[in-house]
Amino acid sequence: MMDSAPLGQPPEAGCPFCSDESAVLRNAHAFALPDRYPVTPGHLLIVPRRHVANFFQTTLRERRALFALLERAKRLLDQRHSPAGYNVGINVGEAAGQTVMHAHVHLIPRYRGDVANPRGGVRGVIPAKQSY
Q: What is the CATH number of the domain that holds 91?
């Protein structure tokens, strides 16, 4: 794993995450933007600036930038939406549900009553394993 990535890398043609035009937060290596198909109000994506297919291909510097922005995004959503909780998720590969092959972290605000039984949280990706 490299510990730094070049800035200003050209965008990948057709990639919806290679532009920070709709970003609500930015830092040197990442930005946060609203999800186009939000799971709940306020759902944000934290995206590295460099076009890289998945989280495990990001550099240490990019990961630090992603998690720093995740903290800032959480504070922003606390102020704007006052959720009761959060899910944080990273899909890696088609088998795990990744549909855009540019690494990104989901920050999904959760609200009381948004689902009948929230127990199990991210375990719900495999419904039979959600309740334990």
A: 3.30.428.10
Question: What tens digit of pLDDT does each residue of 71-128 get?
Answer: 999 999 999 999 999 999 999 999 999 999 999 999 999 999 999 999 999 988 888 8
Burial class (CB within 10 angstroms; exposed 0-12, middle 13-18, buried 19+) of 32: buried
- Classify residue 70: in a domain, yes or no: yes
Determine which one of 29, 102, 104, 106 is catalytic: 104
- The count of domains in the chain is 1
User: How far apart are alpha carbons 131 and 120 in whole angstroms?
Assistant: 6
104 is catalytic: yes
Joined together, the tokens standing for residue 1 give 């794993």
What is the distance between the alpha carbons of residues 4 and 131, in angstroms, rounded to a whole number?
Answer: 41
